[in-house]
Amino acid sequence: MIGEFYALAAAFCWSVAAVFYKKGIGAGAIPAVLIRTFFAMLFLLVLYLLLRGGHFDFTLMGFAFLNLGGLLRLILGGAAYMKGLENISVSRFIPILFTFPLLTILLSRLILQEEIHPGVVGGTVLIVAGVWILSGGHNSGGEKNIKLGVSMAVLAAFLYAFSIVATKTGLKDVDPFQSALISMPVPLVLLYLGYSMNHGAGTIFKFRKEAYILLGLGGIAGMGFGSYFFFVSITMIGAAKATSLAAITPFLSSMMALMTLKEKINSSLVLGTAATVAGILVIL
User: Fold this and answer.
1) Across the chain, what does the average pLDDT equal?
2) Which of 15, 89, 164, 168 is the most interior residue, by most CB within 10 Å?
3) Whole-prediction pTM value?
4) Is pLDDT above 60 for 140?
C-alpha cells in the first residue's frame, strides 16, 4: 500500500498548492508558472544537495524524456493551468483538470502497455457527464470567463496526460527524487527566455512580494513535494493506477477552497465533482 499512500499524498499536496496559486495568480499566468517553478526547483535542489551531496546519476534518454514531460507539464500545461485559474474558481477548475487520469490510463495502455480493465467505459461516461455539468454550471465566486477557463482546464488535462507518459518512460532510468529535480531546469529556462523576449528580462522581478510568497509556497507544495510523491507512486504501482488514485484531488481542493477562499459550492459543482470522481473510481 506504500505506492497508493504516495499517490494520495501527492493529491493532498496538489490541493494545497491550488489554493496558494489562486491567491497569488494576480501576477499573471506565465509569471506565475515561472515563479512557482523556480521556487520548487530551488527547494528541491537545496534538499537534494543536503541529502545526497552533488552526485547525480541519470542517462541521457531519461533526462530527455523527463524534460519532455516537464515541458508539457510545466510550460504548456502550467500556462493553461494558471490561465484557467484566472478565469474560473478552484472548485470548478480542478475537477475538470482531473479528467486527465482517464486520458493517462488510455495512453498508458496504448504506449506503455499497462493493463486496462472494462470499467474504463463506465468511467468515461461518468467523467464526461461531470465535465458537462461543471461547464454548464452557474458563475461561482466572481468567475471572469467560464468558457475560457473550462477550455484551459481541458487543454491542461491533455497536456498533463502526455506529460505523465513521457515522465514514466524517463523514470525507468532515473530515481524519483532526481526526476522531480531534473525535469524543471530546461523548461524553466525556455519559458523565461520566451517571456523575457516579450516583456523584458527584469519584468519577472517587479511583482508584489505576496505573489512570490504565495506562488513559491504553492510551487514547493505542488511541484516539490507533490511531484516527488507522485513520481514515487508511478514507479511503484504504474502510471494508470497512481493517476487514478490522485483523482481525490478535486474533492480535497473543493473543501479547501470552501474553507480558505470562501468560494460558493453550489449543486452543479457538487454533482459535477461527484460524477467526475465516481467515474475515475469506477476505472480503478
Assistant:
1) 86
2) 164
3) 0.82
4) no
Cβ 207 vs Cβ 33: under 8 Å:
no
In tens, the pLDDT along 214-260 reads: 999 999 999 999 999 999 999 998 888 888 888 778 778 777 877 77
Contacts of 24 (CB under 8 A, 6+ apart): 32, 35, 210, 211, 212, 213, 214, 215, 218
Which residue from 73, 10, 39 is spatially nearest to 217, judged by alpha carbons? 39
Domain ranges of the chain: 2-51+58-283
- Tell whether the torsion through CA atoms of 106, 110, 113 and 119 is positive or negative: positive
User: Quick check: 135 pLDDT over 70?
Assistant: no
Q: What cell numbers appear for 46 in the block?
A: 537545496
* Residue 31 CA: distances (Å) to CA of 100, 162, 175, 211, 216: 24, 23, 29, 10, 12
Q: How far is CA 23 from CA 39, 83, 136, in A?
A: 16, 13, 25
Exposed (0-12), middle (13-18) or buried (19+): which is 90, by Cβ within 10 Å? buried
Measured distance CA(195)–CA(214) in Å, rounded: 21
182 Cβ contact partners less than 8 Å away, ≥ 6 residues apart: 56, 58, 63, 66, 67, 174
Q: Strand, helix or coil at 28?
A: coil
Q: How far apart are CA 271 and CA 269, in angstroms?
A: 6
